[in-house]
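[agent] plan:
  1. take the single chain provided in the ticket
  2. run structure prediction with default settings
  3. attach structure tokens to the ticket
  4. add a short note for the reviewer (M.T.)
[agent] executing step 1
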Amino acid sequence: MAAARISHIELDEATIVWRNADIEQERRIAIFDLIEENTFRPVRAAEAGHGGPYRLRLSVEDGRLVLAISDDTGSPLEMIILGLGRFRRPIRDYFAICDSYYQAIRRATAQEIETIDMARRGVHNEAAELLLERLEGKIETDFATARRLFTLICVLHIRG
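[agent] step 2 finished; step 3 output follows
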């Protein structure tokens, strides 16, 4: 496996107020897929000689996304803080469409489910592009990693 990658990811459980079984499944899948295959190179840490792999802890503090990056032994390397203002709408849209999707799975036709799933993927893809844009110059990553990270950012925003 390449060294410029995430080897462990943790969500700040205190940030997560509530989640249902569907969201918990999304979280498990996103973490599993992310650990299995990702590209993640924090620019400052890499320039300081740290080649990875990296441990990542995601949390939300004062309305900002905090990415706490450590080396594989847990020694802190850097912290990246992103304002979440530009993510509010994509997060809200993603929650709404996921809710529709989960309801459709239980009641709708295959064609209706497919239509909602296409819309869900579209919102998810747009949010991943936004995340890539916000990480530019801070973390080098790929689209698939950004998609999975966005899923986890959404999990941090769930309110009961």
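[agent] step 4 note for reviewer: The first helix runs from residue 21 to 36.
[agent] ticket updated
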